[in-house]
Amino acid sequence: MNKKLNYRLPAEWEPHKSTILCWPHQKEDWPGKFMPIPWVYTEIIKNIIPGEIVRIIVQSQKDRIKAQKILERANVGLNNIQFIIAKTDRGWMRDSSPVFVKNGKQVKAVKFVFNGWAKYSNWKKDKNIPSVLAKNLQVDMFEAEHNHTKVVLEGGAIDSNGCGTLLTTEECLLDEKIQVRNAGFTKNDYQTVFNKYLGVTNIIWLGKGIAGDDTHGHVDDLCRFVNKNTVVLCRETDPHEKNYKLLEENFERLQNIKLEDGSKLNVVEIPMPKPLYFEGLRLPASYANFYISNYSVLVPTFNDPNDRIVLNILKGFFPEREVIGIHAVDLVWGLGTIHCLSHEEPL
Is the C-alpha dihedral spanning 328, 16, 317, 201 positive or negative? Predict the structure, then answer.
């Protein structure tokens, strides 16, 4: 693939053909809290299917029947749901799925290496998800390489405005000691890769991700595009809170940032929920982990006074969509929420 093919990474708010999920099955992701998780997924699915197909990966025919029964009990119709039977280690589709790019109406899948966030050992099945999806969705797929080496990247590490600008963090992609994705890669190397495979001409580099983030700096818990020239950025008001300094530093970085066309980036603040802990572990609770579907914007909520504030802010950017809070206090015990578990297939 080369630049002449003119592929681009669409924004999440552009029309979807489907949303891809994986029915929860890995109980170790939610130790002691797994029981409510299928019902949280059911609520998510119920609020996506009015606008698009939901493709659900299940481990077996038996698991498909179980999922159908839960959906039917919650009065969720199956007409807009398609099941794909395939083995996975985990269910975090944002990170193990391919990245879908477009050239006009043509959609292709870019396969990056998924290696369990350079942290976990159970990823051997997940690495096959791009091939499984490309086959089922009937799209061509190609692998991202740089200097004859396959490139490691998770979908949660990047966010796009659909016009050539991409958000990411130095902590995730450039750290050479912790959860190293591509050893020796520089910003120029990523610029080359993102330009070649995703049509990106402008990268906005933030610093660190939020406290408790198991991925070591994914941007989708931190800062997200809500239109082609505006991001929402998490900020913390308590100067004694662990996130305060790193979020302030990211806020400072975004001042006077230019977009791909030279215009100034608009930055809108959204609050953080109060810190959440379970069994002594800090959890990556963040409102930035919302998902934009055709019908709705699904926002993780945490029984926090700031829940309503964030829902109202996002409604201002998506007046034609339903902005819906999804209770995520149990979900975040898996160290991720709505955006982490979903992936859009562009139309």
Answer: positive
Report the alpha-carbon distance of residue 48 to residue 37 in Å, rounded: 17
From the number of C-beta atoms within 10 Å of its C-beta (0-12, 13-18, 19+), residue 225 rates as: buried
Q: Is the pLDDT of residue 48 over 60?
A: yes
Smallest Cα–Cα separation from 23: which of 15, 14, 69?
69
Q: Are 334 and 120 in contact (CB under 8 A)?
A: no
CA 337/CA 335 separation, integer angstroms: 7
Mean pLDDT, rounded, for 184-208: 97
- Which residues pair with residue 168 across a beta bridge? 205
pLDDT of residue 99: 98
Q: How far apart (Å, rounded) are the C-alpha atoms in residues 247 and 65?
A: 44
Strands 106-111 and 99-103: antiparallel
Count of beta carbons in the 10 Å neighbourhood of residue 183: 9
Q: Report which of 122, 120, 165, 95 is spatially closest to residue 341, judged by C-alpha positions.
A: 95
pLDDT of residue 5: 58
Specify the pTM: 0.96
For the chain, domains (ranges, CATH) are 3-346 (3.75.10.10)
pLDDT at 272 over 60: yes
How far is the C-alpha of 142 from the C-alpha of 303, rounded, in Å?
43
Instruction: In the chain, count H helices and then E strands.
Output: 9, 20
